[in-house]
Amino acid sequence: MTRQAPGPKGEPVLGNARAFQADILQALQRGRREYGDVVRFEGIGPLFPVFFVGHPDGIKEILQDKHRNFPKTPFVSDRWRALVGDGLICSEGELWKRQRRLCQPAFHRRLITSFATGMTEVTAELLDRWEAAARAHREVDVTLDMTRLALSVLGGALFGANWRQDSEVMAHAVEVAIGEAYKKFGKFVSLPEGVPTPANLRFARARKQLDRIIYRVIEDRRADRGPHPDDLLEALMTATEDDGSGMTVEQVRNEVMTFMFGGHETVASGLTWALYLLSRHPEVAARLEAEVDEVLGGRLPGVEDLPRLPYVDRVVRESLRLYPPVSLISRTPLEDDTVQGYDIPKGSMVLLSSFVTHRHPDFWPNPEGFDPDRWIPLGEQGPHRYAWWPFSGGPRKCIGDVFGLQEMKLVLAMMAQRVRVRLAPGHPVIPRPGITLGQEHGVIATVALREKAPPAAPRALAGADSEAIAAAAAAAGCPVHGGGAR
Ligand code: HEM
């Protein structure tokens, strides 16, 4: 027997539309608290009623068990498509399946591990600038600096030396394009791209500029007889199916754009929130510093160090719990279906929020508390596979989870070695959901320099070391999922 999900009626005529517009995450959170794990929100406009599913069992049903009937919501995918064409993030069906297979080699652990040097180099450069800011008593814009850091890391991983050559122009075009895309994503309705509004024109110009550079880099690479660099672009250009076919130039461009946009704001958001939480919890920051000092001394971390930095791992995991960068996703069933016994009519918008589920009191005691040690008894799996799902799950789970976690851990370990971030007094930090979970006014902070760390404790025995290296890839990866598409 199925039932209609309960939910708030909201205001007369408008229903819940204004509550969604004002603060959608709080509206969903309230809905779950007051009505339970499947909520039906009435409202005005073509998207309502909107369903919300907050229980890990329901999320598993949608993302994993019934994923074929729950593709991504078309109007959300269309907005991505304006930016990345038929890239992995918004394609469906056979095209998605083939592209996912062809993209998989780009996320091979060996390749991701090789990006660690780029990650630590970019971080060291930023830390030099932050040290100068600290000496000059200047504030730093953590949100902006993390965004630029993550873009630089991704640009290097995608294009190797070609990125260094074009980084300023490309970074600027990415910033403009994503800024405009943000505005579009923020609105339920926006004017079609063909209408020459100033915003549409800015967006089109930035996309054209990016296209010009990306197509040129691809063409140069094709014309060059080698040797070619070991980067994401090369992996995309050389990937083949069993029948020997690969991607067209346009498909390579689409996936490059997808990684560029899917893979830097997410990491930047995760890092910004982690630094914010550390600034609010000096006792956690102190333990993080103690661990990196003991294990690394003053030297740079590598992927092989990560298994010996369990506190770094717990801090990352716990901050992704409280502030998951992709805090809201949606699906739309092709046919009438049920979730946890409640009717979900075909064509409806179904929202899933890691931000809300990561605070579900049945799975997370003291849900709002920042407590990295809660992970000690839980282990990597957490209390339920879908109680912690910052990288989503099922076949459409994030392809860049290993990349993202590795970067977050290396960057945070290096920051803990050299600086302590202190939130600027009186600066409000309010979550703002967009493509990723940002902050209403960014995160502005001062930087305090740390004393130089003592030399590292002697490394573990040689045998244990090689075991650690063998275990490193696993520890750097998404703790919940394996590597490949399912
Ligand atoms: C902390 C960092 C990251 C987080 C939290 C994150 C989160 C997510 C989530 C939740 C999804 C699923 C969206 C949905 O189902 O609607 C996703 C998909 C995706 N992510 Fe990530 N991501 C991160 C880093 C990255 C990186 C570094 C890359 C690439 C370099 C990347 C590329 C992608 C792609 C291509 C997809 C679409 C996969 C598909 O549909 O087959 N992500 N990500």
TrEMBL record:
InterPro entries: Cyt_P450, Cyt_P450_CS, Cyt_P450_E_grp-IV, Cyt_P450_sf, Cytochrome_P450_Monoox. Gene3D superfamilies: Cytochrome P450 (1.10.630.10). Heme binds at residue 398. Keywords: Heme, Iron, Metal-binding, Monooxygenase, Oxidoreductase. Its cofactor is heme. The keyword GTP-binding does not apply. GO terms for molecular function: heme binding; iron ion binding; monooxygenase activity; oxidoreductase activity, acting on paired donors, with incorporation or reduction of molecular oxygen. It comes from the Bacteria. It holds the Pfam family p450. Coiled coil: none annotated. Belongs to the cytochrome P450 family. This is Cytochrome P450 family protein. It comes from Streptomyces bingchenggensis (strain BCW-1).
